[in-house]
Amino acid sequence: MKKIKTKLNEVFIIEPDVYEDNRGWFCETFNKEKYRQIGINDDFLQDNHSYSAEKETLRGIHFQIGDSAQTKLVRCTKGRVLDVVVDLRRLSNTFGQWISVELNEVNKRQIYIPRGFGHGFVTLTDNCEFVYKVDNYYSRDNDRSLLWNDKTLSIDWQTSNPKLSDKDKYAKNLKEIGELF
Hints:
The protein is mainly beta.
């Protein structure tokens, strides 16, 4: 397994070891001890799985605040997505900066996203499945969204007309969300 640093402090790309032969392939998508060895010590307690039927479906940028904040370990198990992570920690030297990484069923990459970051993705193909672990349970009262096309962020989503939920259409921009972390 390889842990790759990103420009956002504490956000990492994980490349699992993949073993292939004439039958197909095998990889460990999570092994608590191996993750501890690379400095990831979170106690993940819930797995989530989403399906997006159409290309250019955008989900995010989502995060939870307060005691409900979540660390995530995300991956795409079917199709291709452009995954985006935004630093929302006001005191961070990378506050308001973002990264994007393609996650797909072939590269099997994962992204480790600690608390204090917003997360979203857009599907690059039809029929995408996205799976992630979280270290805290979902709280409707502490659920927040950052506007996907906030002009101060200028995120290149590789689409100009994504399919959005109402929650994501009417999310607040970075200036409006205030000091959360």
